[in-house]
TrEMBL record, chain B:
<comment type="similarity">
    <text>Belongs to the TRAP transporter small permease family.</text>
</comment>
<feature type="transmembrane region" description="Helical">
    <location>
        <begin position="88"/>
        <end position="109"/>
    </location>
</feature>
<dbReference type="GO" id="GO:0022857">
    <property type="term" value="F:transmembrane transporter activity"/>
</dbReference>
<feature type="domain" description="Tripartite ATP-independent periplasmic transporters DctQ component">
    <location>
        <begin position="27"/>
        <end position="155"/>
    </location>
</feature>
<keyword id="KW-0997">Cell inner membrane</keyword>
<feature type="transmembrane region" description="Helical">
    <location>
        <begin position="12"/>
        <end position="29"/>
    </location>
</feature>
<keyword id="KW-0812">Transmembrane</keyword>
<comment type="subunit">
    <text>The complex comprises the extracytoplasmic solute receptor protein and the two transmembrane proteins.</text>
</comment>
<keyword id="KW-0472">Membrane</keyword>
TrEMBL record, chain C:
<keyword id="KW-0813">Transport</keyword>
<protein>
    <recommendedName>
        <fullName>TRAP transporter large permease protein</fullName>
    </recommendedName>
</protein>
<feature type="transmembrane region" description="Helical">
    <location>
        <begin position="216"/>
        <end position="238"/>
    </location>
</feature>
<dbReference type="GO" id="GO:0022857">
    <property type="term" value="F:transmembrane transporter activity"/>
</dbReference>
<feature type="transmembrane region" description="Helical">
    <location>
        <begin position="281"/>
        <end position="301"/>
    </location>
</feature>
<dbReference type="Pfam" id="PF06808">
    <property type="entry name" value="DctM"/>
</dbReference>
<keyword id="KW-0997">Cell inner membrane</keyword>
<comment type="similarity">
    <text>Belongs to the TRAP transporter large permease family.</text>
</comment>
<dbReference type="GO" id="GO:0005886">
    <property type="term" value="C:plasma membrane"/>
</dbReference>
Amino acid sequence: QDMPETEFNVVGSIGTLSMYTDKELPFWSEQVPAETGGKVKANVKPFTELGFKGGEIFRLVSTGTLHMATTVLAYNSGEVPMNESADLVGLLGSVEELADAVDAWRPAFAEFLETQHNIKLLGFGTYQAQVIYCRDEFTAIADLAGRKVRASGASQQAFVSSLGGSPVSIAFAEVSSSLASGVVDCAITGALSGYKAKWSESARFISPMPVNFGLAAQLANLDWWNGLDASVQEYLTTGLAGLETSIFELAATETETGLACNTSGPCPHGDPAGMTLVPLTEADETLVAESVASAILPAFAERCGAECVATWNETIGASLGVTIE
Amino acid sequence: MTDTLIENVSRWLAWAAGAVILFGCALPITVDVLSRYFLNRSAVESFEISGFGLAACIGLGMAHTVTTKAHIRVDFAVARLPFPLRAACDLLAACVLAVVAGALAWFAWKTAAQSYAMGAQSMSLLRIPMVIPQGIWWVGLFWFAFVAVLAPLRAVLRLVRGDREGFNELVGSADINAEIDEAVHAAEGRT
Amino acid sequence: MIATALSLLLGLIALSLPVAAVLALVGYILSENYAFFPMTGAAGELAWNASEDFILVAAPMFIMMGELMHRSGVSGRLFDALTPWFARLPGRLMHTNIASSAVFAATSGSSLATAATIGTVAIPNMDKGGYNRPLFLGSIAAGGTLGILIPPSINMIIYAVLTDTSVTDLYAAGFLPGFVLAALFSGIVLVLVLWRPEWGGPKIAAEGLWRARLRGLPQLIPPIGLFAIVVGSIYAGIATPTEAAALGLIATVGLVAVNRQLTLGVLLAAFEGTARTTCMIMLIVIAASFLNFVMVSIGLVQAISDAVLGLGFSPLGMLFAIICFYLVLGCFMETLSMMIATTPIIAPVVISLGYSPVWWGVVFVILIEAALITPPVGMNLYVVQAVRKGGGAFSDLFKGAAPFLIAMMILIGILIAFPQLALWLPSILNPKTGG
Ligand code: NA
Ligand code: NA
């Protein structure tokens, strides 16, 4: 292949989680140099190691300080409400549903990023389903009423409130010990990450209902991207589409193995933790749907504005058969 | 005259910075812990407010670290030098601090301005426009940069007048003494 | 690259430039020379992140507690209450110094505040005569260092932020080594006084000793209550470590009010002192976060880690070398700057040698305690010297503090041989993450 020598920096997702260690790191450090004969060199670092918190990455790609980055879109819901569109709390039931929603949304979102934020959208990624872990027994989502649930961000908090629970804000670093000591009754994290962090030793009950996912996007600064040789652009576009697919597959697998590991197995990562799985009932589904319709969607519409709502209705809404009034 | 004004304004801002820690961080957090324990719910979003409180404290209090020479300098070697060399080191230290302060104020401005341009809001249910906490932070850091840039200029002026004592008072390496007085006065209770 | 970075860092620090400015400057120079894109673009965001970090909110609250504590009268009454308990033990008040420091440390997050507070109430007794002054002063300076090993601890909070370790685990891990160190300090005093009985202070009348001991006990209630608020509340499931610091500050203000000392003047002085110290620390934190960003981006951290591991020492040999490095560095560097500047580089190396980050956190804090009492830059020595109103040779202090360094080295040896001394309590209190 006749590519020019190209070197750039890439900021990856959370450095300790499998999206980075199993997918992004091997892609940038092994696959890309191998496939391009060393012509394309990417210097990849997880944002956590760089001392970022997450919210600044979108801005830094937009201003061009960073060439390329993977970032969870919800980190920026405070300044770019549109980012939250496909990862709204309580809306989607599985990683597969998320993949469909994202496909419907992709062209509109890509255009939005290019025209409004000087960013080229190159693909998506996602974490496993984020589920609820609780210390004390519950048999239905309605039982969460009155419990202190650690929730991050306005959407999760609104969701917990509308289910009758009490949303509590605690620094991420303090969640694990707070759940252990009982500062909070319940907390939300990934189906497999909670197993790996041994949350099961303090929380004994788990609900398989995805609260949301942690949808991420692979972003590039538009000016920098336009300056790349066409052959490099073409190679990266195809390569990153492949990365997206494999990350979604990983997330789907990890959601399943995570739930299995936390309960009775089989578990490829260690001994099953023996937590009680609290299956989702029909009443639960009605409750969640009501909460989405009455709390999540109207709040999203208010943050996002009329134009954004119209885009949502035409893309994600159409694929789900839901309309925001 | 302007000297005392600079010092007084910096001290007033430091009082405000400390007050923010007590009334803007400790008090709301205590309210939230109590309401979570007794009422099972958070009351005032102290998690977010106190983070902004710390930023306000840092911004508003920073200039006072210049007027009281709070910044740590490892000066046991320099302190043994004859006055001209020592003065050169002191001046260099003040200039470098001024450059860093100016850069910090500039970057803080860019961050606050970008938040304003994007209409950024905080992540909690309060949805505070980010330009408010970042603006307070920036105003404090701007004053910090102003005071830090004036310090070496004022020091040179005193040196030209032959006022060595005044020069030492302004930028001389007395960090250790100041630090000790601080701890001791705190323990004894200042008047 | 490593040599450039290191010589820049040490050279600029030796020129007596402010440490915070040196860190920022080195970050800038490295990024100009080794990065292939302008890294200063991220400086504003990094500075804002460091400025509003919720976990770091605990630091100014502990600092303000230290500013207000003496006004509460708690420390003086604690000292008087503990005195009769050591009246028969050779060394007498020196043991009281250490014991009051240990108890006070359980309410205070800072070593300087602990040394200054206990020194203020203890030193007038030294001047009544009969004690070897260097040793007496040394027991206060060394005892004060317990402030950061026995929880709560500002240094542990900052270490936790820098290394992504749980503060809860670190607090639990520091508890037993903290009291063992206090016992070792007392042991050193005892041995020295048995060797030189004339150092040990005047006899105290034995009559009515038990009555005095029992009568003083209620004075222990305020410090124990504060400990319950600042540390107990964490393990009781009432508050997170950061929140507990806020509860402690409010309680301290309450104690000052009960002691009828809560005036506007007292508050403003505390505000000013808190702002000054907090901003001094936070400018270093902000500069260090920029330097860290640059060092990670240009691969310097990785290079250092590879170079150190490539030396081919055994893990124990490596650990020994790192401990020596900190003992030397600690002589010359202020401890917070040392901690913030070196942790992002050294901690990953120690962890990759197979040591637990919580265990290393405890050993590291003990090394910081050592740095606080080694000349020429030993802040606790300076604080005690300043509290000593009558004056006297500064050399008294480092002569007197030197024996206690031995106790610290013994404790590190014990921790290497029996890591469980630190790791057992966290594993009991927090089975999922401890150890
Ligand atoms: Na302590
Ligand atoms: Na030292």
